C-alpha cells in the first residue's frame, strides 16, 4: 500500500472511536441508516459484503450521504477488493489476510485494513506495508491480553479490534495505546435496521462517538 493510502486509512480510522460494522438486507434502509450514523458522529462506516443488498446500499449511501465515509467489509478475495475499488469505496476491510488480497490491495491502492489474529498474520501484513489492521475476532481470539502480547514485536502496527466488542467493553479496548478505533455491529444491529429504529441507532452512535479515542 502506498504511503498516501496508508495515511488516508489512518485518517479514516481516526475520525471517530468506533466504526460501525453494518449488514444491510434491504437497500432501502441504507440511506436513513447512514444518516443516523453520521448524525450520531460516526462518519466512517463498514458495509459488509454479506448480503445481496450490500453493493447497492454502498452506492446509495455514497450518492446521497456525502458526509459518510463508506468502507467495504468482509472482503474475502481479490475480486471483492476490486469491486470495492470500482464502487468508489473510501476504504476496505477484511476479516483475514491472504497474499492474493494484499496483491490486489497494492494494485488498486485502496486504503485497506487486513484482518489479523496471529504473529504470522502480522508478518504477512507488515512485510508488504500494511500496518493498520483489524484484530478479528478480538474477544474470542484472546481479548486485550492477546492484543498486548501481539503488539510487542510489531511496535509500528495500529489496530482496529472487532468481534465481541460492544458498549460495555469498547472503552477498555480504546484505552490501549495501539488501538485507533474499534469496530462492531452493536451500534446498528440487524433488528434495529429492519425495524427502521433510526433514532435508537443515532443515540447509540452518539454514545459511541463520545468514547475516548487516541
Ligand atoms: C465483523 O465482521 O467485524 C464482526 O462480525 C463484527 O463483530 P460483532 O458483531 O461482534 O460486533
Description:
The chain has ten helices and nine strands. 43% of the residues lie in helices and 15% in strands. The chain is of the alpha/beta class. The protein has one domain (3-213): Aldolase class I (TIM Barrel, Alpha-Beta Barrel), CATH 3.20.20. Strands 5-4-3-2-1-9 form a six-stranded parallel beta sheet, with helices on both faces. A three-stranded parallel beta sheet has the order 6-7-8. The site of 3-phosphoglyceric acid (3PG) has 12 residues, from strand 9. 3-phosphoglyceric acid (3PG) binds next to strand 9.
Give structural attributes.
single chain, alpha/beta, six-stranded parallel β-sheet, 10 helices, 43% helix, binds 3-phosphoglyceric acid
Mind sketching the topology for me?
Elements: H1 3-13, E1 18-22, H2 30-39, E2 44-48, H3 54-64, E3 69-73, H4 78-87, E4 91-93, H5 99-108, E5 112-113, E6 115-116, H6 119-126, E7 132-135, H7 143-151, E8 158-161, H8 170-174, E9 182-184, H9 190-195, H10 198-209
Parallel strand pairs: 1-2, 1-9, 2-3, 3-4, 4-5, 6-7, 7-8
Bound molecules: 3-phosphoglyceric acid (3PG).
Amino acid at each position: 500500500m502506498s504511503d498516501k493510502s496508508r495515511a488516508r486509512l489512518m485518517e479514516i480510522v481516526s475520525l471517530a472511536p468506533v466504526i460501525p460494522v453494518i449488514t444491510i438486507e434491504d437497500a432501502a434502509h441504507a440511506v436513513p441508516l447512514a444518516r443516523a450514523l453520521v448524525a450520531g458522529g460516526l462518519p466512517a462506516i463498514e458495509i459488509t459484503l454479506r448480503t445481496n443488498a450490500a453493493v447497492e446500499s454502498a452506492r446509495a449511501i455514497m450518492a446521497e450521504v456525502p458526509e459518510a465515509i463508506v468502507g467495504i467489509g468482509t472482503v474475502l478475495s481479490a475480486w471483492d477488493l476490486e469491486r470495492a475499488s470500482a464502487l468508489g469505496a473510501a476504504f476496505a476491510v477484511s476479516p483475514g489476510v491472504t497474499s492474493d488480497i494484499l496483491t490486489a490491495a497494492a494494485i488498486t491502492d485502496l486504503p485497506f485494513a487486513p484482518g489479523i489474529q496471529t504473529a504470522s498474520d502480522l508478518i504477512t501484513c507488515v512485510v508488504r506495508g500494511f500496518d493498520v489492521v483489524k484484530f478479528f475476532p478480538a474477544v474470542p481470539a484472546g481479548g486485550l491480553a492477546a492484543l498486548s502480547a501481539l503488539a510487542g514485536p510489531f511496535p509500528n502496527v495500529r489496530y482496529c479490534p472487532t468481534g465481541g466488542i460492544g458498549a460495555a467493553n469498547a472503552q477498555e479496548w480504546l484505552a490501549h495505546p495501539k488501538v485507533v478505533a474499534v469496530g462492531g455491529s452493536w451500534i446498528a444491529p440487524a433488528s434495529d435496521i429492519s425495524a427502521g429504529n433510526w433514532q435508537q441507532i443515532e443515540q447509540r452512535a452518539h454514545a459511541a462517538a463520545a468514547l475516548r479515542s487516541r
